Amino acid sequence: MQGRQKRCIRWGMQRTRAEGGQAVLETALITVVMLLLFAGAVDVGRMFYHYINVTNAAREGARTASRLPCDPALMASRTAIRNAIVAAAVAEAGATGTPLLAANVTITPDPVATGCAAAGTPIQVTVAYDYANIFSNLLGSAGVRLTNQATMVAFGADMGG
């Protein structure tokens, strides 16, 4: 074979040098698409991780709410109970890497606003977290709000254990 007319033979097919540039371009395009798919998969995994943390924080808040004794006559006691429930949820989420704000924890019934929950009634703790995904800055979106709730029965006093 001579100079410009050289052909390379690969896998039983003949290609000219001009076709080599096309292969590089195709590889570059496919690489970009594959990297975007990989980043999306990683982002979904991170979102699921934070969702599990939000779920655990709601459970921890509800567990704390169900076991704390509450004195309905003392506003300071009810405020302390609310703060303990919120602190338990925030600490659980923070220990696993999810920065949760106290304002994103709601308690139903709220010990401060509606008083203490009677023994045997359900207490619901709802936790919300604003997850900023990898693409939110690129696409200008606000991310995803992850929310979960847990409900447990109020004991009215710590049962030990």
Structure write-up:
- It contains 3 helices and 5 strands; from the N terminus they run ββααββαβ.
- The strands form 2 sheets. The protein has a 3-stranded antiparallel sheet with strand order 3-4-5.
- It has helices at residues 17-67, 75-95, 136-139; strands at residues 8-10, 13-15, 105-108, 122-131, 144-153.
- It is rod-shaped.
- α1 packs antiparallel against α2 (75-95).
- The protein has 161 residues and is of the alpha+beta class.
- The protein is 47% helix and 19% strand.
Mean pLDDT: 83
Biggest sheet layout: 3 strands, antiparallel
Strand order of the largest sheet: 3-4-5
Strand runs, count: 5
Shape: rod-shaped
The number of helical segments is: 3
Strand content: 15-25%
Structural class: alpha+beta
Helices and strands, in N-to-C order? Answer: EEHHEEHE
- Gap from first CA to last CA: 86 Å
**Poorly predicted spans:** none
Helicity, as a percent range: 40-55%
Radius of gyration based on Cα positions: 28 Å
